[in-house]
Amino acid sequence: MSLGDYFEKAKGLGVLATADSDGRVGSAIYGRPHVMDEETIAFIMADRLMHHNLQSNPYASYLFKEDGEKYVGKRLYLTKIKEEKNSELIEKIRRRKYAELEGKDEYLVYFHVDKVLPLKGDGKK
């Protein structure tokens, strides 16, 4: 199944993790990524810690656990490739609006998908 099909159908909880230039790690709950093509995903980000970390360290990981009792989902290993500030595309692809972000800068941050692994596994695939 393609990443686009998977994230269009899957329901669950996602966590994005980044690190700053000194290696200090941060994580935050994020919705499903916007799949641009099979090698590129994007997230809409506010100017907060995850976005700040990506200015000095382009690497991130995204963990997605599907709804349900079993540990089913995906782990994506990512490299930031570009970003757009307050672009029109953000409004076109947005799934939800958040009142606390109204009038604030938002970024559409694109990532190359370096590796996809199942949520559970030995990481050898």
Describe this structure in words.
The chain is α+β, with helices and mostly antiparallel strands and 125 residues long. Helices cover 15% and strands 47% of the residues. The chain has a seven-stranded antiparallel β-sheet. The two termini are 16 Å apart.
Topology:
Elements lengths: L2 H7 L2 E8 L5 E6 L3 E4 L2 E7 L2 H6 L4 E8 L6 E13 L2 H6 L12 E13 L7
Antiparallel strand pairs: 1-2, 1-5, 3-4, 4-7, 5-6, 6-7
The proportion of residues in beta strands is over 45%
Which percent bin holds the helix content?
A: 10-25%
User: So what's the CATH class?
Assistant: Mainly Beta
Q: Taking all residues together, what is the mean pLDDT?
A: 91
Summarize this entry quickly:
By secondary structure, the chain is of the alpha+beta class. The chain has helices at residues 3-9, 49-54, 88-93, and strands at 12-19, 25-30, 34-37, 40-46, 59-66, 73-85, 106-118. Strands 2-1-5-6-7-4-3 form a seven-stranded antiparallel β-sheet.
Keyphrases for this structure?
about 120 residues, alpha+beta, Pnp Oxidase, Chain A, seven-stranded antiparallel sheet, 3 helices, 7 strands, globular
